[in-house]
Amino acid sequence: MIVGRFAPTTSGRAHPGTLLAALLAWLDVKSRGGQFVLRMEDIDPGAQDPGYREGLFEDLRWFGLTWDALVWQSSRTSAHEAALDRLAATGLLYECECSRTRIKAAGIPSVAGGWIYPGTCRHRQVRDWRRSRQNLRVNLGGVRVDVRDEGGLDLGQTLDATMGDPLVRRGDGGVTYQLAVVVDDAEAGVTRVVRGRDLATSTATQVALRGLLGLPIPVYRHHLLLLEPQGEKLAKLHQSIGADVLRNHLSPGALRGFLAWAAGLVDEPTPRTWESLLADFSWSRVGTSDRVVTWDGERLSLSEGPVA
What is d(CA 18, CA 24) in angstroms, rounded to the nearest whole number? Predict the structure, then answer.
């Protein structure tokens, strides 16, 4: 069975970039006759505010997104803990006491932005992780991952030189994105991961964790991003225009039409139904260049030409 998913973090209201990712993930799996899973990722700090969680969920319903299964990540604790047990059994799980300041001081830039953890605490192997009150990482020293996404993007990495050892559980007991996404995708039977290319650099780490856990590797595809005028990705962090504001000015169909136009699926930004977009969906029609989106208080528009 073909299974795809959309997995937004519940740290704020949906914005055009969120909804474009939802639209493309849904079109991808439904064009293949597959099942679509909506997973609300509500376990990270800042993602647990009830207003954000409920607001984002309502934004997706207003947009018209439908799903075959709904998962709240906060209900997945036992599965995440079982994965930590398996990682501990490999002997590669270790405690880390390094602060962000100390990691930055090592001065090794990451391909994802920020700094690579240099492996300082790898000697602090832990088996009984439940008794630990420190950050936990997985030793991926010397690991090389070779993988390409469906669009031909080379995602291969030697993790020591690109990302470093991933943090899989924080000292406060919370499981991190890198582990949770791997475990949750596998349990849902996800065979296709469609997401923005800002997440492409995390793929090799997730493939490595899948290997350690004995989990299957899905097909990955990464798509264009919608950018703010200053070149930053539209993101909740930057207070991008939220769906709660867009809803006062646009219908769901009009917003779908604009996003489909921005992605290159249609020739003009006129209102569209899900069915009309699905009828002739093809990745060959989706643009590969990021687009700059502006908001004048009433209308969304694109800047002159794409951003490479």
Answer: 10
Are 63 and 192 within one domain? Answer: yes
Whether 57 and 126 share a structural domain: no
Cα 183-93-126 angle, rounded to 5 deg: 130
On whether both 54 and 120 belong to a single domain, the answer is no
In this prediction, residue 249 carries a pLDDT of: 92
Quick one: CA dihedral 239, 242, 246, 251, positive or negative? positive
Are residues 165 and 86 part of one domain?
Answer: yes
Predicted pLDDT of residue 232? 62
pLDDT given at position 234: 59
Contact between 216 and 210 (Cβ < 8 Å): yes
Q: What is the CA radius of gyration of the chain?
A: 20
Cross-sheet strand order for the sheet of 291-295: 226-227, 291-295, 300-302
Q: What's the CA dihedral at 79, 81, 86, 90 to 10 degrees? A: 150
Q: What is the DSSP string of 40-102?
A: EB--STTS--HHHHHHHHHHHHHHT---SEEEEGGG-HHHHHHHHHHHHHHT-EEEE---HHH
Mean pLDDT, contiguous 10-residue spans, the chain (308 residues):
97 93 98 98 83 93 98 97 98 96 93 93 96 97 97 96 97 95 98 97 98 98 90 54 89 97 96 97 96 88 62
Number of residues in the chain? 308
Quick one: pLDDT at residue 237? 40
CA distances from 211 to 2, 104, 199, 207, 208 (A): 21, 29, 19, 6, 5
pLDDT number for residue 235: 56
Task: Quote the tokens at residue 122.
Answer: 């790898």
